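Fold this: Dienelactone hydrolase family protein
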Amino acid sequence: MGTSINFKRPDGKEASGYLANAARGNAPGVVVIQEWWGLQDQIKGMCDRFARAGFDALAPDLYKGKVVPYHDTDAAGKEMNSLDFMDATTQTVRGAAQYLGKNGAKVGLTGFCLGGAVTIIGATKIPELTAGVVFYGIPPEQAAKPADVRIPLQGHFATKDDWCTPALVDGFEKAMRAAGKSLELYRYDAEHGFGNEQRLSVHDRQCAELAWDRATDFFKKHLG
């Protein structure tokens, strides 16, 4: 459904990604951020799904062509740990937001796992955003303080998550509330990565569909 494109970062460098356009013109935009596996077909499928829901969706390729097989957690960890999160967010992700918003459309940001952490960083650093939806990822507080979040956020987290743990989620929620920030937070009796239908060991269809409905309703409310 979509296509690979190149777009400019604010620093003038070129980045690439996968773009799926809604059927209607002047659609709002959603930037979709990958898990630590890279720009997998599953993430491209999420862009296609957002397009069918009425959004122009762009997934920037933060690993620049590198895609890690689902079974290779060591390689995924290595790629994620070598990623410059600040450059990725303030340049590549912001460039994607600027691309989608170039005709005045409102733009949201969503991401999964690694992409969830990038979404929260983006919520503090990218002025072009109107709303964000976070899936099971939270950055260290030194990367993005809840008090610096500029946009309404919705969060989807798993109770059986040993990476983005329930305790981490509780701390994030408490800090957001203390800072008076807008946060809708949902917890699911599921495992980390429950939204990825290509990973049958963790996918929970019922939780994934509920989270999807909540996310698209949230974006329709804030982006139009």
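The beta strands are 3-8, 14-20, 29-33, 56-60, 107-112, 129-135, 153-160, 183-191. The first strand starts at residue 3 and ends at 8.
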